[in-house]
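Archive transcription. Copying these from loose printouts into the bound notebook so they stop getting lost. Printout 1 of 2:
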Amino acid sequence: MSTAGAGIWQPYEDDPVLTPAMTEGHQATPADEIGRLRRYLEAVVDDRRGGPVHTAVAFNAAYFGYEPGGEGYGNGAFDIDTFPTLTLGDETPALPVGALVRIETGSDPLYAEIVYKEGRHLRVSHDADVPAWVSGAPADAEGPGMRQGSSSPVRRELLVPDLTVFGPALQLPEAKLKRFRARQKWLDKDGHVVVDARYTSVSEAELDDTVAFVHHLLTRQRESLLSPLVPVSIVQLAGGSEEEWLREALTGLLDTVRYALRTSEALRSWGHYALARTRIASGLRHDGALGEADLYSLTGSVEHAATPASRRRHGLQGSRTAYTAIGPWLRDLAGAGPLLTGVEYAVSVCRANLAVADFVRGDTDNGLRVGSGVRITLDDDFENGGIWRSRHPGADEADGSDPLVPAGRGWRDTLSPCATPDTEIPACAADAEEAPVAPLANQALTDETIGLQNYLRITDSELCWQTPLRLAHLMEDYLPLTPMVCDTLRLLGTEALPVRLELGHPGGTLDISDEVQEVTLDLTGETGVLRGIQWPIDFFPGLRIYVQWPRGGTVFRLSTAELKDPVEVDGQLISHHYDPQVLTRDGAPGGSRDGDSSDGLDTRRLVLRAVRRLGRLTPDGHALLDRAALPRGVYAMTPAAHQITALERAVGELLDERHLYAATGSRGADGQPHHPAREGEAPIPLIGYAPDPMVLPRPGACGHGPVQATGVEHFVHGFLRRLPAGWTPTDAQRAAYREHCRRVGKADGWELPHGYTFVTAHSRRR
């Protein structure tokens, strides 16, 4: 193909397609420069058999001068002997998509660009059945809820190399490649490379693709990056050679490249991978394996995996959760094998995921399939081509989260303290003797598991997580950061620097001086922290803090979220989301911003402090303590007779007033207490604390709004409508739907789902 005269950038003939403005990201780049880059990248995708072209691969093309038409990187500025070496089955330092590599063969090496990679977990079966804990598991996971604790974990990964990108001069004859695949010594039978990828940390394995790629460019691919023979040097684009400038410039360039791919009307994106719409359409028209019929079968399979086979007594359906891995599902299709070799495997995986995503967008309510009651969500976008989670009944998981953002529920659910019958906590009972009690035998309910950070969203542009505020944070004016942030920022080579903290507290008390603060980022310890935070006066232990960090930046945005209705716990009015376990622990008597001590507490408050601080916790904040351990827990030594008397009197009063409740457990042969009591073990008395939050409806919350009068004209937003069989939407309706997607921010969902049209916004009378 020739790009001359077509307005398509030609490396080494035209002005560079990457510009200094692009180093600031797509928002700072003029529209005409974005358009020029987009046209070139569309030509690159078309030249590479319609994709998929990853953001990192697209950057390589624009930076190193990929020439469509067969030459590829053949005229590029590379010393190919510096490329990292790969050998099938070997352990190797982890490589990102976009890495330029040399595959050893014992004779003529293969030079390639890694265009796709995925996890290849040994516990995922060939029939796409996935053990729940594998989905979303960290790199060092070795079983349900179990981790190796390795500082440099190893993960089995499949890498898809494109062996054609360096032009005919470095390509081996097809017959020789077939022999390599048949022998499965240098390439596997599908033309892929499976390796044990070694990471320097668990956090490194969790980095976004573009962040990992930037680090790779500045380290293992640095010689090629800084070559003077590239169309335009990163040093020129960044305005200098300082390491931080180079990193920020590369981050901005990758953001611009991804934006150009995602906003192209000729392309569709699955994550970081862009495919030509014509390539997707041709696959759908195919009558054989991996055609439209198979993709419909895939969406049905994902839904039916969790559909109950029968009804229980009284008509109640049983719950079921299933996980479907895309890669194994495709390989199990009859006749699909020859179509899943080389780069075609990556094409098929992306097409299949887009098919399920379109099904979720078009035929579900935020992931919930109304007819079957099954909720379908993406759970892992890396392992075995992507893992989709199906849950029935799905209505009980309506948390408002985006069903197409990987949630990692498979792994997270194995960490839940309510995973076994022993750990199930009944609803709050009316009688004190029947109140919910923590299972003493469950070690997962100790302090090690409370106050943990949870990731909410991980994208190429930002990282969001939530963490409960602990008493120590309030006392010492700091907040710990998540390891993924720390590992990324440590690449800057500094241990401390000033950063900007922006704080939001809707519905709460917030001084102007609290809203924007300059604090210190401290990376000297194992866990990085923000120090010198001025916490607002009404922040309390247990308050949930939602943290947003734009990747690579020096701004941290903290916010809280209001409860729908405030609650009262032990006389404390709480209007924002909180962690009940932390509230029980850190909100015990004797703890405040000024210190944490039992000095000056009367016996009643000493008892409450001991039960809340030493008792085992349930997820909703109940604490349960072995009654025999209470005296030493209160007095820290064997108490005197008068202290025992005062203690028993205080316990009796607290039980009578329902500040505490009594229960019965048992003690095992090892001396450990258990609850519920185990058969054959000696019964023991237990004492518990129940927070019992009392809901306080907001004024007017129980009222009803005014009834709308009939015959009133009202505005109707654009929406999807199912078409009768055999009907198709017009080009105008397709265009209207694309414009609708652009307005609502779903740049990846521009094609109308099969069988639907788009009704544009209009007015209607009731």
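Printout 2 of 2:
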Amino acid sequence: MRILFFLYFLVLPTLLFSQVDSREDTPKRSFSDRLKGANSKDKDTTKVASIDMYRFITLERDTTYLDTSLTIDKEYSHNFIRRDLFGLLAFPNEGQAYNTLYYNLEQNSPYPEFGFKAKHFNFLEANQIRYGSVATPVTELFFKSTLGRGHSVDSYFTLNLSPNLNLSIAYKGLRSEGKYINQLTSIGSFRFTASYNNASKRYYLNAHFTGQDALNEENGGITTIEDFESEDPDFQNRQRLQVYLTDAESFLKAKRIFADHSFRINPTQGDNNLYVSHQLNYENKFFEYFQPTILSAVGTQSVKRFGDAIVTSNLKDQTHYNKMYNKAAVMYENNLLGKFQFYIDDYRSNFYYNRILINDDGVVPSTLSRNINSVGGQYEYWKNKWHGKFLLSRSITAQSISNLEAKLNYDLNDDFQFVFGYQNLSKLPNDNYNLYQSNYVNYNWSNNFKNEKINVLSGSAVTPWFEASLQLSALTDYLYFENTAVDESQQIVTPNQFGGTIKYLSLKLNKELTFGKFALNNTVLYQKVDQQQAVLNVPEFVTRNTIYYTNYFFHKALFLQAGVTLNYFTNYFANDYNPVIGEFFVQQNKQIGNYPNLDFFINAKIQRTRVYLKAEHFNAAYTGNNYYSAPNNPYRDMTIRFGLIWNFFN
């Protein structure tokens, strides 16, 4: 990683000075004129491409343009997973899990997943991949310092070999030592995309390959929280705090091949068009938990943190998974009536181990296989300021799933936009709820849980005065993990299902106030849960408030942004983390929250380079050691971090 890091910055100056900025303000011309020159007189002039010729398109055909500005949203998303972390609570080291403060962040799909959800925050899913269309080659380089020794980098390069063919290649890597014993993280993510359409626009193809892996040393949290909370100077060096696990680690690896393509039957596009399409998604995943030393030291005593084990040392659990998804569709498009799509899909997965276990509770099989076929229809409609999308699907095989989605957008004008949504979902449990094998005796189960039923009514509004989003949810047969151990020093985590109905409400408001060159950006979240058993736990209030200053300097060559961000959430029984299964579980022993978290930042933009400098949680030494990410995992101490994002063009 160190060698790659130095090469990374060694090559940057050479690449930078070899670039020609082709997006200066000039009269607009056609695509071919801008790239080739309109006539012989243009041959010696600078080739020009406007910013709208640098597009990035998602699987759902949402389009964004290359943005090199420095805004407060860019400050919020300058992190390893490259998105706003509001509603997520980071663990002590970069590249670890995040505790969820905002339930609305979860996306609902009727199909079962691999599980090990706490390990997937840093993984890119198929619908998160973007496909480019650029007039000239584009490079983006991301760097950020980490906690302890290590670096976080993300390099992205894309070009169009022709106006119809785009290729991109990217690699994201992280290595962070952390401040506590046995906390190293090492993550790598390679991705390659291809986007193609023929000259007549009859055929479209988006395809990608990803190879991702994450190695995490797992310390299980600190054993004596009183040593941390005492503020004893002897423990300011966090390596002196005792942890449950000194040599355990987990490893998650995943590969995916994805293709989505469509063909228009009629030769020329008109008022009526007929398309056929196909989507392929093949994934292979592998999770391993390795713990050489079984016993954990708590003070002067030794405990079995996860209960009795079949082996006495070098415990190793391995879970394998592969999935193949195919979807074939026919779509009719009419300029007046909208788009009608009918499809049939085939979902096959295999979640497996290399042995069959026989214990006192029965047989734990080696394999959980799925074979699901569904049929569905989708309707999409545009008229003036309205855009509606409606989807209905239902399985036609023994394993029952169903999904009803409706989404309606109304854009009154540039100042007022409204979105209304509804989803009714019957979802199969993730595979690790129904099957798991481990060398820990109590971590072996074979279940047949019911489908989760999820009803969600949502709405959002953008106005000149505020932005707001509201969600009302009803969850039936909710699945969760719980700790069944009697001894507080142990974690015996097993899956369970709540047979009643949970009612959930969330209201999020955002408003930015400006005072000359100063601005106050506010995001406030209110949540309420009505449940007979405390299985869905979230804080009642979450808030983020940033006051910052922006201005140009040196004849507008430098744009500066500086400010302070407050993050706060109220006390609640936060879920705890279990490394054996890579999941969070419900607990009712310790509340966390009710502590201020202040970050001071100074960011600058010079041409297309954005530089970030931040003192994270700089108030840690003054407000007491009561800050946690989970009951046994303290939140991060004060840390100064540096980063940059560099865009350049050929």
